[in-house]
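Quick start: read one record
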Amino acid sequence: MSVTITLNRNASIKVEGDITLVGDDGQPIPLTPGKAIFLCRCGDSRKRPFCDGTHKSNGYCSTVEASA
């Protein structure tokens, strides 16, 4: 299965597919197979690296536009 990464406007990064997420200690972070994950972009989540929705209340604003 391929991996799809969706950059959500003013929100998290959605990652779907056959995912292996590795922490800074080099160890895999346990995930539920087949379930999408949402990674924090605002930096304020209490569940980092995962999004907990804090961006909705902290004023985080970011658009994602591809450059050539």
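The chain has a mean pLDDT of 92.
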